[in-house]
Design a protein that fits this description.
Oligomer: single chain
Strand content: 15-25%
Radius of gyration: 32 Å
Number of helices: 9
CATH architecture of the largest domain: 3-Layer(aba) Sandwich
Structural class: alpha/beta
CATH class of the largest domain: Alpha Beta
Number of strands: 12
CATH superfamily of the largest domain: Periplasmic binding protein-like II
Number of domains: 3
CATH topology of the largest domain: D-Maltodextrin-Binding Protein, domain 2
Distance between the termini: 58 Å
Largest sheet: 8 strands, mixed
Helix content: 40-55%
Length: 297
């Protein structure tokens, strides 16, 4: 493989017309320039320069290499510009994964902030199962994922886990329910009630299951829905009560009341998981800051 630096030395000799002029331009000694050209001639197996008067001129092989060197120099300059744009956050691609209830509440305003500050960065958000989202970040298929993560879960090599917020579950009751008049509901007050399931098996159901177990009961699910809008409608229809996280209650059904739960209060911990190498991207750092800011709104 030809040495690009030696090709650049040859280019300097040919464009300046002499070894001495090239040495002055590059800050080398004339002997160092001659050594570089000689080494390049050994690599190519051809003579690259010939003496013309007091200077030098390229042979056919030297002229050919000089033409390619000019192209290489142009590509290197373009690469440096592209890297500078990427480093400054003017270009690039940001791939992220999220789950449904954080889309309108956390993600939408955060992505709007990224768009304002980095309009040249392509953003690729995709809805994903929390377990799949974490795997995609580990494989490098995504730069960031918003997931529900338990404190006991191990951290993965090359991944940084950043806590965003604790999302408390709320009691969702029909408007005429006997507990609707209370401001706060003890979890044990719901022990004998029929329940509407609002979470599929996984990290979002675990806080409910564990909190109920700590209160000495297991919920009696009479029906289930894996989306919060339908679960609210089931509750409003009198099918049962439900626990739904605060972020899942932005659009409220008129036939329900929502009350805080205590003793204990089920909480799901929402985190951003990020590939450490992706933190070099200014747009990703902006997204993280915006996600943290969105939680306070």
């Amino acid at each position: 493989m030809l040495d690009v630096r030696r090709m650049q030395v040859l280019h300097a000799v040919i464009t300046s017309g002499s070894v001495t002029a090239a040495a002055a331009h590059l800050g080398y000694t004339p002997s160092a320039i001659s050594q570089q050209v000689s080494a390049l001639e050994k690599e190519t197996g051809m003579q690259l320069l010939e003496r013309v008067g007091r200077g030098v001129a390229p042979t056919a092989a030297g002229l050919l290499l000089t033409q390619y060197t000019a192209t290489i120099r142009q590509h290197l300059a373009e690469a440096e510009t592209a890297l500078a744009d990427l480093r400054a956050g003017r270009t690039g691609r940001l791939s992220l994964r999220y789950f449904a209830s954080v889309g309108p509440t956390l993600l939408a305003p955060a992505l709007a902030q990224v768009r304002r500050e980095h309009p040249g960065v392509a953003i690729d958000p995709k809805l994903a199962d929390p377990d799949d989202a974490l795997s995609e970040v580990e494989r490098g298929d995504a730069d960031l994922a918003v997931v529900v993560k338990r404190p006991a879960e191990p951290h993965h090599q090359g991944i940084r886990v950043i806590h965003l917020l604790d999302d408390a579950y709320q009691a969702v009751l029909p408007t005429g329910h006997p507990l609707a008049g209370r401001r706060v509901v003890d979890l044990t007050d719901l022990a004998g009630e029929p329940w509407v399931g609002s979470e599929p098996p996984g990290p979002c159901l675990t806080p409910i299951t564990e909190a109920c177990a700590a209160s000495g009961f297991s919920p009696d699910y009479v029906t289930k829905s894996e989306d919060y809008t339908t679960a609210q409608a089931f509750v409003a229809a009198g099918l049962g009560v439900a626990l739904i996280p605060r972020l899942g209650l932005t659009a409220r059904h008129p036939g329900i009341v929502i009350r805080r739960v205590r003793r204990p209060e089920p909480i799901r911990a929402i985190h951003a998981v990020v590939r450490i190498t992706a933190l070099d991207q200014p747009a990703l750092r902006t997204l993280l800051a915006a996600l943290k800011d969105s939680r306070r709104r």
